[in-house]
Write a structure and sequence with these properties.
Elements (H helix, E strand, L loop, with lengths): L1 H5 L3 H10 L2 H21 L4 H8 L8 H39 L2 E8 L7 E5 L4 E8 L20 E7 L6 E8 L9 E8 L8 E7 L2 H6 L3 H11 L2 E5 L2 E13 L4 E13 L12 E20 L4 H47 L1
Parallel strand pairs: 9-11
Antiparallel strand pairs: 1-11, 2-5, 2-7, 3-6, 4-5, 6-11, 7-8, 9-10
Helix pairs in contact: 5-8
Length: 353
């Protein structure tokens, strides 16, 4: 009996279900939205609804957009740093090559007690040597009977050879130079020359490092030819006493070493007191001595340090590698975020449709 009274037919359930179809719900919702829009148009929206709309939170700025902007800024900064690093690498390599090609000169002075006797090669031409003597303490006695041959104590050699620049025979009178710089050794020479048809008269001379090199040379003519090719020539004039102060300079380069002489000369006029008939012969006077007991040594030093340049380049290349790696990861992240953004946008459009 209870089952019969309380039982409901299948048709009743179907009718109830049909009353709850989504179409009816959609129509009711659509009506409510239409009524709300009409109220907003007429300005008759209730106060409670206005407050709810005013208090609703504003749309938040997208976090992914901020990250994208920040990433782009970082990429620009790293590109700038990469440019600076590349310029630094180029500048380091350029400075290293410039220092390698242009070494710096280091000048030092070495004090000595005695110099190796230099060679003084004189080219008197038509003049003849009257005297050659050694003196000490810079003492030069007064001239006695100038213009006449006198005794000498100099060691000398006469060498004839063909000049390197002119194919003619040249005769050189090579004198052993002073060596005792502490006692201020000097060599005094006197030459005489008969009347000449030249407009100017002078005697040329040349200095080379060691007189012993000439003595020990197997071919003295070839030795003198090489000296004339490599060393400079100077002159002293007649009617004057020329005082030559020598200084030795040694140069040490990357490929070879060299020796040269530097000199200071002072000229004093000779007051000729000879008889009138003897003045037709022109007299030449020369004094050779060392300026000071120091040898100037010039060394060419390469200031480029390969280890420091290598360390700078390693740091630069490491920075470039890090910057490239960061840029690669940043670009990949941007591409990933772009794809995700496009996917979300497509999903929203599909939901709206």
């Amino acid at each position: 009996m209870l089952r019969k009274d309380n039982g409901r037919g299948y048709q009743e359930f179907n009718e109830d279900d049909e009353s709850l179809q989504p179409a009816d719900l959609y129509e009711d919702t659509e009506k409510d939205i239409s009524n709300l829009e009409a109220k907003q148009a007429n300005g008759s929206v209730p106060q409670g609804e206005e407050e709810v709309n005013a208090n609703s939170p504003p749309r938040k700025f997208s976090k992914s957009c901020v990250k994208n902007v920040f990433t782009v800024v970082l990429i620009l900064i790293y590109v700038l740093l990469t440019t600076v690093a590349a310029f630094l690498a180029y500048q380091t390599i350029t400075d290293f090559m410039e220092k390698m090609n242009n070494p710096v000169m280091s000048v030092t002075y070495k004090e000595v007690e005695i110099f190796s006797p230099p060679g003084i090669a004189l080219f008197p031409g038509n003049a003849r040597l009257l005297s050659c003597r050694h003196y000490y303490r810079e003492y030069l006695p007064p001239l006695v009977n100038p213009g006449h041959p006198q005794e000498g104590d100099c060691e000398m050699q006469e060498v004839s050879y063909k000049g390197p620049f002119q194919n003619q025979t040249t005769t050189a009178l090579v004198v052993r130079g002073p060596s005792d710089v502490r006692n201020k050794e000097v060599i005094f020479m006197q030459f005489s020359q008969n009347e000449t048809h030249e407009d100017f008269s002078a005697i040329s001379y040349m200095l080379f490092a060691k007189y012993s090199d000439l003595i020990n040379s197997a071919n003295r003519s070839e030795f003198m030819r090489d000296c004339e090719r490599n060393y400079s020539m100077w002159t002293f004039s007649g009617g004057f006493r020329t005082r030559v102060k020598m200084s030795l300079v040694r140069t040490s380069g990357k490929n070879n070493d060299g020796t040269e002489f530097r000199q200071e000369s002072a000229v004093v006029k000779f007051n000729d007191k000879r008889p009138e008939h003897e003045r037709t012969d022109e007299l030449f006077f020369a004094v050779f001595e060392w300026r000071d007991p120091y040898i100037q040594e010039i060394k060419l030093i390469v200031t480029a340090n390969p280890w420091s340049s290598l360390a700078i380049l390693c740091g630069v290349f490491m920075a470039l590698f890090k910057a490239a790696n960061f840029a690669k990861l940043s670009v990949q992240w941007i591409i990933r975020m772009r794809k995700r953004h496009l996917k979300n946008k497509a999903r929203e459009l599909n939901q709206i449709n």
